[in-house]
Structure formats: C-alpha cells, structure tokens
Amino acid sequence: MEVSLFQLRKYQTMSKFDSIRFYHDEEVPGILQNIAQHPMVKSLIEYTFPEYSDEQVAQLINSIQSIRDFQSKIIYYTLQRVLKNSSEGLTSSGFEKLDDNTSYLFISNHRDILLDTSFLNVLLLEHGKIMTGSAVGDNLVQKQLFMDLAKLNRNFIVKRGLSPRELLDSSKLLSEYMCYLLKEENRSVWIAQREGRTKDGNDATHQGVLKMIGMACDEASIMDYFKKLRIVPVTISYEYDPTDKLKMPQLMAKLSDELYIKDKNEDFLNLMRGVVGQKKHIHLHIGDVLDTELDEIKNETSNVNKQIQLLAKVIDAQIVGNYKLWPTNYIAYDLLNNTDRFKTEYSDKEKQLFLRRLELKVDKNNDTVVETFLEMYANPVVNKLNLQNV
After folding, report:
1. Residue 390 CA to its chain's centroid (Å)
2. How far apart, in Å, are the Cα atoms of 160 and each of 30, 137, 152, 198, 328?
3. How far apart are CA 130 and CA 188, in angstroms?
4. Of all helices (H) and strands (E), which one includes residue 360?
5. CB 319 within 8 A of CB 371
6. Does the pTM exceed 0.90?
7. Which of 230, 239, 314, 335 could form a disulfide with 326, with the two C-beta atoms 3.0–4.6 Å apart?
8. 312-332 burial by CB neighbour count: b if 16+ within 10 A, else e?
C-alpha cells in the first residue's frame, strides 16, 4: 500500500508520542480481545450487564472497533450503574456553550481519581459533544491491565517521580501531545488544575500545570497560544466525597508538617472507594471559554510568570464561582464556626445524616481530626464567600 508524504509525516509525529498516547482505533479490537478473559474485565462486564449471556458478551466484545465504541457501548453503561448504585444522580449545566464540532481544553478541579473525567465524558456523549483525551498519572497504571483499560478509555499518561531533567523532557512531550490532540486531531483534552486530587476542599490551579501546557507555545505571546487552545474551566462537586475518610491521613500529616508516604495499594483503594462509595448528588458545570480575559492579561503585563499567575486566578474564579454548594457544605460550615448562618440551606434530617457520617468516619474525640474533616466540606463555602467579597 502506497503511503503519501502527508501520511508518513503524520505517522512520524504520532510515533513521537508512543510512550504516553492512548490507543489508536485500529489497535482497540486486538487489545480488547487480549484482555477479555481477564477476571477483572469479566467482572466489569458482569457488573455492567448482569443479564447478558456468554454469547451476548462475546457479541458485544466483537462489535467494538474503536475507542468510541468501547466508551459508548461499555464504559457509558458501567458509569450509569455506578451512578444508580452509589449516588442520587448526576446533574449538569453550561454544555450549551460548547460547539458540537469544536475541541476544548477542559481544566478542572479534581476530587476523584477516576470519576471526575469519566462523568464529564458521560455528559459530553449525551450532549453530542467531542469527548476528551484525559491525563492520568502513571502511578495509577502500573499493571498492564490497568494501562490497557486506561488507554482504551482514551487516557494519556503523565509520568511521575522523574529527575529534574527527565521531568523537563516529559513535560515538553506532554505539552506537545496535548497541542497535537487539540489542533491536529480536533480532540478535546481534560487535565486537572493541579497534580493530585484536592483533599482539603480548596480548589486552586497550580501554576506549574499552566506552565507545562504552555511549553508547546508557537506564538509570540503565550496568552495568544492559550487562546488557540480554547481553555474551559470545569467544576465538579460531590455532595458526599466518597474518599473523604481516606484523605484524612495525608491531611493530618500536612498539619503536623510530616512527610506523607502512600501505602503500596493506596491509589487503587482510593480509586475503588471513589467508584463504590456513596456520593449522593453530583453536579458538573462547564465554564466560559477564556477569550477576552486572555487579552486583558496580555495587555496588563508582558511578564510570562505574572501572566501565568493572573491566568490561574481567572480559572480559579470560574471554578470556585461555579461550584455547586450542597447541604453538606453548609452544615460543615455552621458546625465548624458554631453558627446557624446557613440553617435555611439544609434540613434537620440532612444535618443528622452528616453528623452520623462524621461519627463513622473520624475519631470524634480528636478535635483536630474533626475540624480537618469539617474543613474539607466547609472550604468551598469559605472560598465562594471570599470570591464574592473581592
């Protein structure tokens, strides 16, 4: 088969990203067939389609020829079952602002390892928008099966634990890949506003993430480059954080100024708890595409570091401002501050349920632990109040 010069250049460009990219559609059938008999994959299928016979499962697997097939025929229904079994529903707002055929760089707050980006893609699929390639840390895909499932679900790999030189090279490659997806493949991209999940309820964009994204800049001004990427801040809020208890040891270590070292299986336990743990209500909001804000930053200063600082503030203002506050947030604020300021925002029953959760999750005789747990839920209220007072 004759390959054109254009195709050859495209293949050479794509091979550059082989160490971090998700699977190409033509690779999907073979990979899926290879892992279909793995006990974990069989359990996934049984969980999602408990009524299916072996023959129906085989037909389903054989029908999947692309990542979109895998996501829309299996993962979408898996997530619907997760929502049914562990929540009171997923709501959304802001999707009408997205064009059906345009790619966007979604920069999101990050509460759950797996579900934040998964729920975004559920909603993008339902609204007929372009789904995302999503960043995932390599600490979560150490086993080949997890790597295969991640890449089948259009996740690309962010490498952790590198030397300074390796980190620089890795960050540049990651930046170039994200730019390639957005501009050449017209593929939307999801990335968290910071490395690792927010554990204390304070959603803040790390400037290092923005600097990494800007490393592939091909414009005279980095703000002009960011405008080409069509940045959209995204906010997801859970009424109950399914991993709240699991976040406590790291928060307590931070309070004591101690080095926190993860247990061997901690990431996997957090991932599974996020999936099966109770979340109650979940809301995801699509913010406004950043446009004139970038022009204003460019006009205010030519210092790139200052521009990055201002951009982080703009993103934070949208993420915090669009955060949907739940009764749990207001209850925690009132308990923490010994007030009834927000008593109209929750019922006595909701307060008793939250107190019961508090009693089950932490040592109620340890004031510092109780306060830290409450802050996790109360800080979104505090941050929104602070934003309104700016």
Report:
1. 28
2. 28, 7, 21, 17, 34
3. 6
4. helix 348-361
5. no
6. yes
7. 239
8. bebbbebbbebbbbbbbbbbb
Residue 235 amino acid letter: T
Establish how many alpha carbons lie within 13 A of residue 12's alpha carbon, considering only the half-sphere containing its beta carbon: 7
| CA 68 – CA 57 distance, rounded (Å) | 18
Residue 135, token pair as written in the block: 């960043």
- Cα distances from 141 to residues 15, 46, 231, 250, in angstroms, run 21, 22, 27, 21
Q: What is the rounded CA–CA span in Å between residue 259 and residue 369? A: 18
CA 243/CA 252 separation, integer angstroms: 15
Write out the chain's pLDDT in tens, 390 residues: 454 554 545 555 668 999 999 999 999 999 999 999 999 999 999 999 999 999 999 999 999 999 999 999 999 999 999 999 999 999 999 999 999 999 999 999 998 888 999 999 999 999 999 999 999 999 889 899 999 999 999 999 999 989 999 999 999 999 999 999 999 999 999 999 998 888 899 999 999 999 999 999 999 999 999 999 999 999 999 999 988 887 776 777 676 777 767 676 667 677 777 788 899 999 999 999 999 999 999 999 999 999 999 999 999 999 999 999 999 999 999 999 999 999 999 999 999 999 999 888 777 778 888 999 999 999 999 999 999 885
Phi-psi domain of 325 (left: phi exceeds 0; alpha: psi -120 through 50; beta: other): beta
Tokens of 61: 């697997």
Strand partners, 156: 135
> Rounded distance, CA 286 to CA 120, Å?
9
